[in-house]
Structure formats: structure tokens, C-alpha cells
Amino acid sequence: MSAKPHSDSLAAIFVRLIAATGPLSLAQFMAESNARYYMTRDPLGGDGDFVTAPEISQMFGELIGLWLADMWMRAGCDEPVHYVELGPGRGTLARDALLAAQRFGLTPRIHFVESSLALKARQLALHPTAQWHDSLASVPTIGPILLVANEFLDALPVRQLVRTPQGWRERMVAFDDTSSGGGTFMFVAGSQPRDSALPAGNLEQDCREAPEGTIVETCPAAAAIVYEVAGRLVAQGGAALFIDYGYAEPQTGSTLQAVRDHRSIDPFAAPGDSDLSAHVDFGALAQVAQSLEARWLGTVGQGQFLRALGIEDRAAKLAAAAPQHAEAIIAARDRLIGEGEMGTLFKVMGLAAPRWPEPAGF
Ligand code: SAH
After folding, report:
1. Is the distance from the beta carbon of residue 149 to the nearest atom of ligand 1 less than 6 Å?
2. Closest ligand 1 atom to the C-alpha of 151?
3. pLDDT digits (tens, 9 = 90+) for 198-231
């Protein structure tokens, strides 16, 4: 942020809050920024800030719908069955997935967990019979759940710890009003020791000796959601797919980023007006799910997953049926599965109830 912020802008609210109560945790900064961001707009698509896989091609949602239908059929076609989507955006993935699933007799009840009023309105237009929820807590507890979350976990607030000469501290956001152009947000280390907040496991060992300035990022909100989903799978049956950019092995460093108008910007430049996200720590989430005895089906690249489900055949069929669109269909396929495109950066993590069948794609 370089110019003096508008008095009702989120930046101005943060400045007043920091003046009154001291630096904010990064997690609070990110949570409030994204709440304001998603509440006030539809950020998806060419006119928005970023494009997601279901908005690139119908093939993405169709193959996910077939994966869910295949799991549900081989598990015994239990009813009632619930399609649950976390952060369904424009509702495009649900539309494509449910159309494909319907051909196999899967017509689940539809539940959307969504916080944005702007996006709920778009979802309602495509899914008039859906039910909306503020959290998973109100989703019915009888009957298997088939859950999908695409680019949802990456929007949840991360916490960062930084190694200082005095030990580990929380990374906080302060405001420097002495800098030019009206002041700027900046990172400072919190005043309280946080050594006990380091994640357990291998990383903890490495981190004890980590050099000054090392950053460890965790996402307690994502862990809490995966824990709840795993509990539901174990209790009710079902399967879940979490798709996001992320990493499977523990790592250090900040992955916080901000996107506006399809470009990367400084995360402090426009709080509430840019999309803040962080890479998903799939290794940590797999452990959380398994701690409740849900089955972790694997975490694989999006390209590998979609190829195994037959995206190449599907693209060829669509292209043959509409030769005038063949070039665009092939370009979309390559964007979804290409190395260095979404194919490797994005990962798919599958979870299932203990006695559910072996999945395709992993
Ligand atoms: N899955 C969609 C949209 C991804 S954008 C797609 O792939 O196109 C992130 C979505 O998660 C949006 O729908 C946003 O409004 C929703 N969202 C973000 N944070 C949320 C939260 N804390 N609770 C519920 N929904 C949230």
C-alpha cells in the first residue's frame, strides 16, 4: 500500500486496528482480506482476477463427476447421498460433474459451503435446488458424502513462524507510517515465544537448527476442515477430492501470494481487493485425515489424475464433435494437464471411508 488508504477501505481499518492494539497476525490479515475480497465480487474468469480449472473446460468437472459416480456405484449406490462442494465459485464444476454423474444414476442432494453472497447468487442460478451452508457442521449426517474442493484450501488463512535470534516468533503485520507515500504494511516478528507452535514431525527436527529468518508456514484452518471431512467419511461413508496447488513433502519458506487482474502483486498492496492464497501442505493434511482412520487414497499431480480418467479421449471426442472448436479444446486440455502448467503444480488428494472401493486415478 503506497498512497494513504481510503477511510473505509480494509487497509484503513487495518491501520486503525494496528494503531489501537498493535501488529496483527498474518492469519488475521489474510482471513479478513479474503473475507472482504470474496464477499464483494466474482473474481473468476477472464474479466476477473484469476481462472480456475472448471472455468477452463467442462472436461474437468465431467471427469470428477465420473470419478465420484464410479466410487459411489462400486460402494453399493447408498441413498440418500450428498454432493458437497466447498467454495463452489460460479457452480460450474458442480454443473459439469452432476451432469456426468447423472448418466450413471447418481443424482445426489446438493450442498454448497460458501461464504460469498456474490458467488451464492451465481450458484443459485445454476443450482436452484442446492442447500447452502456456512460450514460443514450443518450438512446432513445420514448417507455418504461425495465432497469436492477445488482451489478452496489455498484461500484459507496461513500462520507463519519466523526464526529470530531469540527463537521462533509469529510473523505479524505492522504499519510503518514513516515510509513515503502515506505509509506501508510490513512484517515484524511477534513479541511472544512460539517455539511450541512449530509443527510436529521431521520438520520440527530440522527447524530447531534452522538459520535466522527461516519461515515455517502452517494452515490450521485447512487442517480443521480436513479433520472434519475425514470424520464425516468415517461416520457416513463417502469420498473426497481436494484439488489445489501445493506440495506433498514438508518444506520451509513463505508461499503467500496475491493476485489481481491475472498478475502477481505485493500481498500488502491491496488487502480486500486482491486474492491472497498460499500453497497447500498436502503431506500435513494426509496425516490429519489418517489420524481419524479415513483412507488417504494418494496425492498425485492433476495431469496424472486427469489422464488416468481419460481426458485425452474425452478431448478427442469433443474436438471431433465440434471441429470448429478443436483447437480451443486441445489448448484447454493442455492447460489442465501440461507439465509446468496446471498438470504438475496442481495436486489432487483423495480421501475415502475405510471400506470404500479402490479409486481410479491414484
Ligand atoms: N471452486 C471454485 C472457486 C474457487 S475460488 C472454482 O474452482 O472455480 C474460492 C472459493 O471459495 C470461492 O467460492 C470463495 O467464495 C470460497 N471461499 C473462500 N473462503 C471461504 C471460506 N472461509 N468459507 C467458505 N467459502 C470460502
Report:
1. no
2. 4
3. 887 656 666 777 899 999 999 999 999 999 999 9
114 lines ligand 1 (CB under 6 A): yes
Residue nearest to atom 3 of ligand 1 (CA): 89
How far does residue 34's CA lie from ligand 1's centre (Å)? 10
What is the Cα 307 distance to its own chain's centre? 22
Question: Per-residue pLDDT tens for 243-288?
Answer: 999 998 889 999 999 999 999 999 999 999 999 999 999 999 999 9
Q: Is the peptide bond before 80 cis (omega within 30 degrees of 0)?
A: yes
The x, y and z cell numbers of residue 305, run together, are 489424475
Q: Which pLDDT score is estimated for 220?
A: 96
Strands (E) located in 183-319: 184-193, 215-218, 238-247, 257-260, 263-265, 275-277, 280-281, 295-301
User: What is the residue with the minimal CA distance to atom 2 of ligand 1?
Assistant: 89
Going from the Cα of 113 to the center of ligand 1, the distance in angstroms, rounded, reads 8
* CA of 157 relative to ligand 1 center, distance in Å: 13
Predicted confidence (pLDDT) per residue in 147-205, tens digit: 999 999 999 999 999 999 999 999 999 999 887 777 899 999 999 999 988 887 656 66
Does residue 87 have its Cβ closer than 6 Å to ligand 1? yes
Mutate to test the pocket of ligand 1, among 56, 116, 120, 336 (most ligand atoms within 8 A of CB): 116
Residue 357, classified by CB atoms within 10 Å of its CB into exposed (0-12), middle (13-18) or buried (19+), is middle
In the block, residue with C-alpha cell 472482504: 36
Residue 294 DSSP class: P
**Which of 271, 257, 266, 264 lies closest to 37, judged by CA?**
271
Q: Is 130 touching ligand 1 by the criterion CB < 6 Å?
A: no
Tell me how far apart the alpha carbons of residues 153 and 87 are, in angstroms, rounded to a whole number: 9
Q: What is the pLDDT of residues 326-352, one digit of tens each?
A: 999 999 999 999 998 999 999 999 999
Measured from the CB, is residue 54 less than 6 Å from ligand 1?
Answer: yes
